[in-house]
Structure formats: C-alpha cells, structure tokens
Design a protein that fits this description.
Length: 146
C-alpha cells in the first residue's frame, strides 16, 4: 500500500490550491506515482477531521495529509475553528495509528497565509507531505503492532 490522500478545504481556495500543489509535487518527487495520490475536497477546515477519520478507517491509505487555511477575522471564530481542527486531526492520527499530517495554516492575515503557501516561509503542503513520508517510513521500520 502506498496510496496517499490529500484532504483539502475548498474554503480559502487561493491558499489551499497552493498547499495541494506543494504536497502533490513533493510526493511525486519522492517516488509516489500520480495514480496513488487522491485529493479529497471538503467545504472548510472544520470538516477535515471527520473526513480524515473516515478515510483512515478505510485502511486504503498509507498516510493522510490535511490541508487548509484558517485566517483570523474580527471575531473569535478563528480560535474555535483552529483549536478543533488541530485536536481533531491529532485524534484521527492517534486513533488510526497512522500518519495524519497537519498542513492546515492558522494565520493572522492573508499575507502570512501567502508566505506559508508558496512564499518566503516555503510551502506548508510540501512540509506536510514530507512529514507524512517520514512518519510512514518510521512506522514501517517499527513493524506491525501486536
């Protein structure tokens, strides 16, 4: 099994499209063939954990790479969404005992998002893909669970 799922939010698409592109290119650069990469789109970042959980339970993926962008607005909605997305993704990874990486940006403004999507801070999607590959290899090295 060497299939990877990119679970990506359609909300803030300008940013997320760059994260998806970065993750996709990084996986391919490291030997994953295009047909083994599936992009699963969800409405927003808050929907990522539930879809990641279902994808994990299918056991058809070696790793899940979660991609999205939560940009702070004038209300505290940002804080609630950020917290729930992060804890949800972590819970999926622990429950499934598989790589479920965090490529969901939580930033103050659009400029910070652009810096992290393909700017001076690199590409968080690419970083999440590298982490997924690294953890997948580490888990293989550790062998199966008893």
């Amino acid at each position: 099994m060497s299939k990877f799922a990119l679970i990506a939010s359609r909300f803030n698409g300008l940013i997320v499209d760059q994260l998806v592109k970065g993750a996709f290119e990084t996986l391919m650069k490291h030997g994953v063939v295009e047909s083994d990469i599936e992009v699963i789109w969800v409405p927003g970042a808050l929907e990522i954990p539930v879809v990641a959980g279902r994808a994990a339970r299918t056991r058809k993926y070696e790793a899940l790479i979660c991609l999205g962008a939560v940009i702070k607005g004038s209300t505290d909605h940002y804080e609630h969404v950020s917290r729930e997305v992060h804890s949800g993704i972590t819970r999926v990874a622990l429950d499934a005992s598989m790589p479920v990486t965090m490529g969901v940006l939580t930033v103050e403004n659009m400029a910070q998002a652009l810096e992290r999507a393909n700017g001076t801070c690199g590409n968080a999607g690419s970083n999440a893909a590298l982490a997924a590959l690294d953890v997948a290899n580490t888990l293989k090295m550790l062998g199966s669970e008893r």
